[in-house]
């Protein structure tokens, strides 16, 4: 069976689509067959990223290892069972259709609570939650006392993950491996950075996730999206001159992230 990776939280702007594209493309470059789904049916940022990639490949005539993008299938409402949610059927049908041909399925969730996102979390073997290094984003995971920095209790998103874990346990499925990825980390050891690190460490023991470093804020990520490219594609499309120190460091961040995910059968050698 394909290993299912879900990238989600309930806040926009945390870098979900950037993380999704880089993880999926890294796996494709390592020789795995990867299918991807975008559950944000309104903005479709990940879907547009993939469309931009297809256009660049066609325009430049380059062969870039890529995941395979799939739309959610339309369904006949008459085929639904009494009380069955149409979004549940669309997602389960999509996964069932692509699973036989994939080693990994990556699902990018919207930055809000939706039925599709809720169901996707119950399917996750690995859950990646990108988080800006800010207590604004931390509030999605837990409420914290502003004076003592003590965690008061889990918040809305952590509770949704807990519910997904309970449903998986009831179905006899293996536990979710949950990784919170700290994006936009400051280069300096600032007070806020240390407070965030301490708070995440305390919370991780309480609600059961691992932490991993993500991507620093870099101009290159904004430049890659219109062409559908990732950090791993720059040499293939003839932009060797753009491999400055910042971009080399960004590639190392991607290597570190892929290693920290500890996906089954994956040896990072790019």
From TrEMBL:
Protein name, entry field: ATPase
Pfam families in alphabetical order: MipZ
Top-level taxon in the UniProt lineage: Bacteria
The species this protein was found in: Maritimibacter alkaliphilus HTCC2654
């Amino acid at each position: 069976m394909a290993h299912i990776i879900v990238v989600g939280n309930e806040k926009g702007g945390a870098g979900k689509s950037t993380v999704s594209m880089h993880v999926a493309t890294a796996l494709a470059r390592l020789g795995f067959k990867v299918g991807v789904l975008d559950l944000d049916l309104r903005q479709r940022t990940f879907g547009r990223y993939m469309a931009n990639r297809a256009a660049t490949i066609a325009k430049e005539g380059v062969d870039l290892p890529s995941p395979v993008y799939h739309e959610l299938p339309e369904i006949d409402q008459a085929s639904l069972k009494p009380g069955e949610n149409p979004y549940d059927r669309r997602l389960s049908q999509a996964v069932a259709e692509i699973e036989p041909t994939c080693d990994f399925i990556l699902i990018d969730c919207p930055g809000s609570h939706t039925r599709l996102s809720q169901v996707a979390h119950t399917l996750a073997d690995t859950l990646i939650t990108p988080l800006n290094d800010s207590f604004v984003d931390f509030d999605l995971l837990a409420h914290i006392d502003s004076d003592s920095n003590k965690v008061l209790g889990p918040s809305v998103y952590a509770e949704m993950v807990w519910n997904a874990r309970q449903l998986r346990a009831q179905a006899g499925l293996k536990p979710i491996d949950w990784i919170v990825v700290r994006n936009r980390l400051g280069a300096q050891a600032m007070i806020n950075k240390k407070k965030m690190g301490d708070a995440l460490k305390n919370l991780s023991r309480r609600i059961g996730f691992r932490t991993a470093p993500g991507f620093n804020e870099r101009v290159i990520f904004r430049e890659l999206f219109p062409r559908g490219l990732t950090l791993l594609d720059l040499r293939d499309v003839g932009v060797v001159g753009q491999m400055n120190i910042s971009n080399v460091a960004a590639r190392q961040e991607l290597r570190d992230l892929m290693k920290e995910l500890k996906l089954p059968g994956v040896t990072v050698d790019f």
